[in-house]
Write a structure and sequence with these properties.
The complex is a heterodimer of chains A (393) and B (444). Chain A is an alpha+beta fold. Chain A contains 15 helices and eight strands. In chain A, strands 1, 2, 3, 4, 5, 6, 7 and 8 form an eight-stranded mixed beta sheet that branches. Chain A starts with 15 loop residues before the first helix and ends in a 12-residue tail after the last helix. Chain B has helices at residues 92-104, 136-139, 144-151, 208-219, 232-243, 264-276, 324-328, 369-383; strands at residues 15-18, 24-26, 61-64, 85-88, 110-113, 120-121, 140-142, 154-156, 161-165, 170-173, 176-179, 182-185, 190-191, 224-228, 247-251, 280-282, 287-292, 298-302, 307-310, 312-315, 319-320, 337-338, 351-353, 358-359, 397-399, 406-410, 419-423, 428-434, 437-443. Classes of the chains: A alpha+beta (393), B alpha/beta (444). The structure holds flavin-adenine dinucleotide. Flavin-adenine dinucleotide binds next to α1 of chain B.
């Protein structure tokens, strides 16, 4: 059953919060999220895998507080937010991913400090009355020096005009929105800096994506912008880099909830067949005890890191990247092992283990993928030296 | 370069190890720069010959036996059944451990994980190499790839150890997670740069890669160099750069160099020696910041409000052992990875540590001499053999400033009085006593 979360208990804050979340104590949020996960979400998991976009369930999770408790206005309870994401992902990895998209979008809005974004817009968002995600895969890689930035902005009176194409953005759709970043092009086509803004899907073109191997219900689209206007009210950050630097660890840390949940779900599948198949399963690698022990240790580490999500030290960021990479590796191993434990029954098209393998693959390849995490940890571990001919620039 | 096989009937050429700095004197190669042609037998070396690196005389050398090499197992391509030994770091400590294990056991799998390229070099040479006109290629003794294949070890170069789970015996790196039966931490220490010094504006000399960058910068023409920090490395670099033709200002936080180690009389001799080479010393001076000027050179803002300009800045402000990896794993850390003084075990099972990264009773000891003995003890423990254990003794410190060589024995107590036992123009000898016992003595 659900592992007891190591959480600091926080009273539900009063004031603005009470208007939207009457009873968002740690226990209530987690209990209601778990009930949703074990009830409607477990039932819907297969259809979500095949393409149903579970906005109704997302709405329920929002009402339960699962999409808002990490925000400052609700106590900055990142540990609880992660525990909720883990509980949902245990039933359905795709929904865990939608929660992450939604959570970080809320984080952008709150941290923007822009009055146009931190009022009703944010309250609707964090309670799951409106929905939106994040288009930061490309800029995150661009900031790490992995690829060039795809959206380009030009200054115009009163704001910017943005054009360009992003290949796939999840948890968006008609009437929805996402946080996005564009490079501001100045004289000579050089990028002077970047801006971050809230992008309304209705003013962009949504292009269908090719079919994915799983998690089809995440409403993932290509986004095309053509002279899209960004005004003051849409701006999350200008310039964007310092803002991203501030929220980067929190952004990455939150993703851990998905992989922890996929691992926990895989453990469930292993335990489910222990009685009938334990006598042969004992010859397998990565037995439930080993996976459970690693999960418990890793989860405790993640929850500890979640106490200071905005810490700026490089060592802290490396700790977060390390935990996130280990979460992905563990989810891969656990899901693989779960299928081996279940054998043919786990290989049925309707079986959870084969779905979880694809969910774990997603955890491992979504930005930052394992390879990006390693690249970034190596970069951050290096000494900075003067840029002479022989030194590292 | 080396002489052909000997014909003097005394057997093959022999090798001798400098106990102070680890240099190996090879009879076949001699020391042509020091006046010893290839083929000079150790016995024929004159008593006044000095170690080309640290300046001690031949009395401080001991016979060096390259151990008979155990035929190394070919590097296994297939996944290992036993995870084997994983060593973090391929500096002297890491390679010494791999050598010590392999000398006794041909088959145990050994993996070295290292942030650098793994090439072997002799670090003490970094503070005397410019004055001798040596290049990075001259300093490299063997590539990491060659050493790994010689030892039948797997080398994962340019790979950082990132996280560690002692209970599961697994090490997370930037190229994947490795299981181990025994883990040896030999990741050294890193330059401790004060936050006010911009790392992109000053060099630190603690590895061959960084030194190579500095070498490239200085190779272009004589430059005006400021060295921040007047400890062992700062003083040695000051002399070395002056010998290489650069104009050097050595900046010390205290009134004299090496204040924790040297009494005033000795420090004065050191300064006189450096001064003779043209080094100017700026004592009692703190640097508050660095800034690139539009002329391209660098302004050093000093605490008294004045400033100084240099084309190249080197910070020799000491070393610190990074703690993230071990602290994250709950391993005891006290200014270094805390190890048992006899077994060199850390507080976690099956994890050992040695070299610059450790501390014994809260004190790091960052010198060459202890490393080989530490590696032996760890190798024997890993192989399950009896061992007399490691006995820590403060190594002799020799300042490789040829203009004023200083040799220090024992552990001086900072602030305690020193007494002159001999003073002439050529030689100064002093000692420090505590309760009638000599705790430290020096000769300058
Ligand atoms: C300029 C200079 C002059 C010196 N002169 C003398 C002298 O005359 N006499 C004397 O006794 N001593 C001297 N020393 C000290 C001596 O060189 C050191 O004590 C010794 O070389 C330390 O060896 P080590 O292997 O412990 O550390 P290092 O040589 O620093 O090796 C550490 C290794 O760990 C790797 N590493 C670091 N972090 C990680 C990570 N996270 N993951 C993987 N790998 C990692 C590094 O790449 C490196 O390969 C001098 C030092 C300097 C800098």
């Amino acid at each position: 059953m659900a592992s007891a979360p190591a959480l600091r208990l926080v009273e539900a804050p009063i004031g603005a919060a009470s208007a939207v979340g009457p009873d968002w104590t740690d226990e209530a949020v987690l209990a209601r999220t778990t009930a949703i996960a074990e009830g409607p979400l477990s039932t819907a998991a297969t259809s979500i895998d095949h393409g149903d976009y579970p906005l109704d369930i997302m709405g329920q999770l929002g009402a339960a507080g699962a999409l808002g408790v990490h925000l400052d206005r609700h106590g900055g309870r990142f540990g609880l937010s992660l525990a909720a994401m883990q509980a949902a992902s245990r039933a359905c990895g795709a929904t865990g991913f939608l929660m992450w998209c939604h959570d970080v979008c809320g984080l952008y809005l709150e941290q923007s400090g822009n009055p146009a974004l931190t009022g009703a817009v944010l309250d609707d968002h964090l309670t799951g009355r409106t929905f939106g995600g994040t288009a930061l895969s490309n800029p995150m890689k661009a900031f790490a020096g992995i690829e060039p930035i795809l959206l380009r902005a030009r200054r115009v009176p009163g704001g910017y005009r943005v054009s360009g194409m992003l290949p796939w953005v999840s948890h968006i759709g008609p009437g929805q929105y996402c946080g996005a970043i564009a490079g501001v092009v100045g004289a000579g086509e050089a990028i002077s800096h970047e801006i971050m803004f809230l992008l309304a899907c209705d003013r962009a073109e949504l292009r269908p994506c090719p079919q994915f191997s799983g998690m089809e219900g995440t409403s993932t689209w290509g986004l095309r912008l053509d002279e899209y206007f960004v005004g003051q009210d849409d701006l999350i950050a200008d310039p964007a880099r310092p803002f991203i630097g501030r929220i980067r660890a929190a952004f990455i840390l939150l993703q851990c909830g998905m992989g922890l949940g996929v691992t926990e779900g895989s453990l469930d599948s292993m335990h489910a067949v222990e009685e009938p198949l334990g006598h042969v399963n004992q010859f397998l690698h990565d037995r439930p005890d080993a996976i459970a022990a690693e999960l418990a240790e890793l989860r405790a580490r993640v929850i500890r890191l979640a106490e200071t999500p905005f810490e700026g030290a490089t060592d802290y960021l490396i700790d977060v990247l390390d935990a996130r990479a280990q979460v992905a590796e563990l989810a891969l191993r656990a899901s693989q092992s779960a299928l081996l434990h279940q054998g043919a029954r786990g290989y049925l098209m309707s079986a959870a283990p084969q779905r979880r393998i694809r969910e774990a693959h997603f955890v491992a390849i979504v930005t930052p993928a394992i390879k990006h995490l390693r690249w970034e940890m190596a970069r951050l571990s290096q000494d900075i030296l003067p840029a002479a001919t022989g030194g590292r620039a | 370069m080396s002489a052909p096989e000997p014909t003097d009937g005394l057997g093959s050429w022999k090798q001798f190890l400098c106990r102070a700095c680890g240099l190996i004197y090879d009879e076949g190669e001699g020391d042509p720069d020091g006046g010893l042609p290839p083929g000079t037998r150790f016995a024929d070396i004159p008593d006044d010959w000095a170690c080309p690196i640290c300046g001690v005389t031949k009395a401080d050398f001991e016979p060096y036996q390259r151990r008979t090499r155990v035929a190394a197992a070919p590097v296994a391509i297939a996944p290992q059944r036993r995870p084997g030994v994983v060593i973090v770091g391929a500096g002297l400590a890491g390679w010494s451990t791999a050598e010590a294990i392999r000398a006794e056991d041909a088959t145990i799998p050994i993996t070295l994980v290292t942030a650098c390229d793994g090439d072997l070099y002799h670090k003490p040479e970094l503070s005397i190499a410019l004055g001798r006109g040596l290049s990075p290629a001259d300093l490299r003794r063997e590539t990491g790839v060659e050493a790994a294949s010689r030892l039948g070890a797997r080398l994962m170069s340019e790979t950082f150890a990132i996280g560690l789970s002692p209970e599961r015996h697994s090490l997370r790196t930037t190229r994947g997670t490795l299981p181990y039966t025994h883990l040896v931490l030999a990741h050294g220490a890193r330059p401790a740069l004060p936050a006010c010094l911009d790392p992109s504006l000053c060099w630190r000399v603690n590895d061959l890669a960084a030194w190579s960058g500095l070498h490239a910068e200085l190779a272009q023409k004589p430059r005006n160099v400021a060295i921040i920090g007047a400890g062992l490395v700062g003083c040695e670099l000051a002399e070395d750069l002056a010998r290489a033709g650069h104009t050097v200002t050595l900046i010390g936080a205290e009134a004299r160099p090496l204040p924790e180690l040297l009494p005033e009389q000795a420090a004065r001799r050191l300064l006189a020696g450096l001064g003779g080479l043209g080094v100017s010393f700026l004592g009692g001076t703190l640097v508050n910041g660095l800034a690139r000027r539009k002329e391209g050179d660098i302004a050093l803002a000093l605490a008294d409000g004045t400033s100084l300009v240099a084309e190249t800045v080197i910070a020799a402000t000491g070393l610190a052992t990074p703690s993230r990896l071990v602290r994250g794993a709950g391993i005891a850390f006290d200014k270094g990875i805390a190890v048992d003084p006899a077994t060199l075990r850390t507080s976690a099972p099956d994890i050992f540590a040695l070299g610059d990264c450790i501390s014994i009773a809260g004190s790091p000891c960052r010198y060459i001499e202890p490393v080989a003995r530490q590696a032996q003890v760890i190798a024997r423990a890993i192989l399950g053999w009896e061992s007399p254990g490691y006995a820590h003794a403060a190594p002799v410190i020799r300042l490789k400033t040829r203009s004023a060589p200083i040799e220090l024995h024992g552990v001086p107590v900072a602030g305690a009085p020193w007494h002159v036992t001999e003073e002439s123009e050529r030689r100064l000898a002093m000692e420090q006593r505590q309760g009638g016992e000599v705790v430290a003595w020096l000769a300058a």
